[in-house]
User: Fold this.
Amino acid sequence: MEFFLDTADVDEIREIASWGILDGVTTNPSLIKKSGRDFKQVVAEIASICDGPISAEVTAMDTDGMVAQALELKSELPDNVIIKIPCVPEGLAATRILTDKGIKTNVTLIFSAAQALMAAKAGATYVSPFIGRIDDTGHDGMTLIAEIMDTWNNYDISTKVLAASIRHPTHVLQCIQLGAHTATMPAKIFRQLMKHPLTDKGIEGFMKDWAEVEAAGKA
Ligand code: E4P
Assistant:
């Protein structure tokens, strides 16, 4: 399974990239705002830290505008930048045009299996269903991932399912069990996935005993 970071904070990206397990990064206009940085500058810096796919989102709401923005981003930014497009009819049309030009896309803001399938038919490289935002409405976001994976199992679809809007480590574990190809999550969740009190306790015990081995001159 691919693990992506969902942030535009380059310090966090450097931290998780240093673990050697970072496969890509997703950004969105809200995350760019939170970074306080210039959009293209921060995306270029992210792309220099992580060589996996880096999603940069278009903000035009018409097909021509989306395609124009995508082509500009592709011409000015490193090769590993891919184009994030909202799941609306104009976005589907833009996805088809960009796919036909060999440009990779991530169709975002997906809240139904039907939307995921439509985006896949338009040639999306990734589709991003949002789990947490469905949970926020009182429904079960994980059911959407299950429905999409069932759909994918019925057909020969090469588009990757990128589980997004992940709020806790259990979301990630459930996505793994359902066979989602990719999960994008905040740095906090990477840290939570690695943390276990018994690992910490075990290290503490081993280090204490090793200090005694050294003190006895037997190291
Ligand atoms: C995905 O690419 C989005 O950037 C992200 O996962 C949205 O998550 P949120 O619902 O926590 O804003």
